[in-house]
């Protein structure tokens, strides 16, 4: 067995190392964990519904280096209050209907130059005897590298010396849905509460779901018809009949205009086949 021997350190070597450290101190090294912006996608969810059989997803490499990405499916379950959790391989949940056996994709591994992009095609291969319902799996894109260099942010003071930014790379996932047969869902909002903490307001509420498909939309807060805040992309998946949502909004700069309550509206996207951008559910919450 070969063993690395620790080299004998001389005083001259120590002087060199100290000088090197002083030089390196002029560089600003910024570590940012879980920076999902290293990868950008042109879609936030994929929906196979009606006659749609293909979807083209573009992956954009936002780093300053060439990156290799691997792609695949995994099963994730939504919990009532903690978002999504990944099911281990082989784990079963009778409330979940996976879509990965019906959706193929190509390529499965891509190399994208710095600032470049790559298109991935997802193709539906639906069995003739598939049972009506909503099926869902989560498509993941994961970089093989753990970190990458980014273009440094502009410096206000050039005397600070050069800047190097190294960001930790994180993978991203997006849900892929397959809807078979007639779809219908209704919702209601209950137990809405708002608590003020300094210049922020914490809002909690329960979104109840009833039907054979998931919910997806934006939550809007308004007062006397004026929009105060909007939170995008709130989902309630089919494994839940109720989800407790915790949101955070700033106190409006101009106050609440004398309103004693805020209107809370859960609004669908324009692409929603049932609601077509309309109101899914709404309630009021007392101004804290």
From TrEMBL:
<protein>
    <recommendedName>
        <fullName>Pili assembly chaperone N-terminal domain-containing protein</fullName>
    </recommendedName>
</protein>
<dbReference type="InterPro" id="IPR013783">
    <property type="entry name" value="Ig-like_fold"/>
</dbReference>
<dbReference type="InterPro" id="IPR008962">
    <property type="entry name" value="PapD-like_sf"/>
</dbReference>
């Amino acid at each position: 067995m070969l063993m690395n021997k620790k080299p004998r350190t001389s005083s001259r070597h120590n002087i060199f190392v100290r000088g090197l450290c002083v030089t390196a101190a002029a560089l600003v090294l910024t570590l940012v964990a879980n920076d999902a912006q290293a990868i950008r996608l042109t879609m936030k969810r994929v929906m196979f519904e009606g006659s749609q059989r293909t979807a083209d997803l573009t992956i954009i490499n936002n780093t300053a280096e060439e990156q290799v990405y691997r792609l695949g499916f995994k099963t994730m379950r939504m919990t009532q209050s903690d978002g999504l959790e990944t099911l281990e391989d082989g784990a079963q949940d009778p409330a979940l209907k996976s879509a990965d056996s019906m959706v193929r994709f190509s390529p499965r591994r891509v190399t994208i130059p710095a600032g470049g992009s790559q298109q991935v095609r997802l193709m539906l291969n639906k069995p003739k005897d598939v049972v009506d319902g909503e099926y869902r799996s989560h498509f993941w894109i994961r970089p093989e590298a753990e970190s990458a260099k980014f273009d440094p942010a502009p410096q206000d003071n050039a005397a600070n010396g050069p800047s190097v930014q190294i960001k930790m790379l994180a993978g991203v996932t997006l849900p892929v849905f397959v809807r078979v047969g007639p779809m219908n869902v209704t919702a209601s909002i209950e137990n809405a509460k708002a608590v003020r903490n300094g210049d922020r307001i914490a809002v909690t509420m329960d979104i109840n779901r009833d039907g054979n498909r998931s919910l997806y939309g934006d939550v809007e807060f308004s007062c006397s018809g004026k929009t105060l805040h909007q939170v995008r992309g709130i989902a309630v998946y089919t494994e839940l009949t109720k989800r407790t949502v915790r949101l955070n909004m700033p106190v409006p700069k101009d106050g609440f205009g004398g309103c004693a309550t805020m209107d809370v509206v859960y609004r669908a996207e324009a692409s929603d086949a049932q609601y077509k951008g309309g109101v899914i559910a709404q309630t009021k919450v007392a101004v804290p």
